[in-house]
Design a protein that fits this description.
about 220 residues; alpha/beta; Rossmann fold; two-stranded antiparallel sheet; 10 strands
């Protein structure tokens, strides 16, 4: 007995030919309605060891997201705070990392992350719709891009001492665009894990570098 090739679509196993047809239909609809938001997510890549660290304990305040376009902000802030705490601890920027509230020692610092832009968009790739129709879906079979995922992130990190005095403030932004085809791992669950990680790592590198030099600073 022979079996036709199949793939998983929304938890249902269907023939690849049928799943491709669904992809064409779904993407055509997407093209008709324009840009759509994609799941934002909060996960980060595995931490790389910090190039600069300080022998202090750090406390992480709840992350703030003030971007008015962000959805489900409360849950987004909570899960992003946990992801940042884990990353900062694993990278060894500080001797230890805890979550506020808690009792700070005089030599410890507080990290306050704030995002004023936390935007992810998925747009139909401009070449997709005509190419998929004209090539009778061969465009899809050979990995032609269907979507274009865009990330636009902007954040700052404020570091305060145990008394609440600001020691360092740094800010940075990160933009990323990537084409997504039918066989891409990002096709079903769009991911901007690399963009988030790059931004968090950049903020920590700059802030901890200033702390290590012992000079309060504000950088952009």
């Amino acid at each position: 007995m022979t079996r036709s090739a199949a793939s998983v679509w929304g938890g249902e196993t269907v023939p690849v030919s049928e799943s491709l047809a669904r992809a064409v239909t779904l993407s055509a609809l997407c093209a008709a309605v324009g840009c759509v938001s994609v799941p934002t997510g909060t996960s980060l890549e595995a931490a790389q060891l910090a190039t600069v660290s300080v022998p202090r304990g750090a406390w992480l305040a709840p992350t703030l997201i003030t971007d008015p376009s962000a959805k489900e902000v409360v849950e987004l802030q909570r899960s992003l705070t946990l992801a940042i705490a884990s990353y900062t601890s694993d990278a060894k920027y500080f001797s230890r990392v805890n979550l506020l509230p808690g009792n700070l020692r005089p030599e410890e610092v507080v990290l306050r992350f704030g995002f004023d832009r936390y935007q992810l968009r998925r747009e139909p790739h401009p070449a997709y719709f005509p190419a998929a129709i004209l090539t009778l879906t061969l465009y899809i079979w050979f990995g032609g891009p269907i979507y274009r995922d865009k990330a636009n992130l902007s954040a700052e990190l404020r570091v305060q001492d145990a008394a609440g005095q600001e020691l360092v403030r740094v800010s940075d932004s990160f933009q990323d665009e990537r084409d997504v085809g039918f066989f891409s791992p990002d096709y079903v669950f769009p991911s901007t894990i690399k963009a988030r990680t790059n931004l968090i790592r950049s903020l920590l590198d700059k802030a901890v570098g200033e702390l290590a030099r012992g000079a309060p600073a504000t950088t952009h």
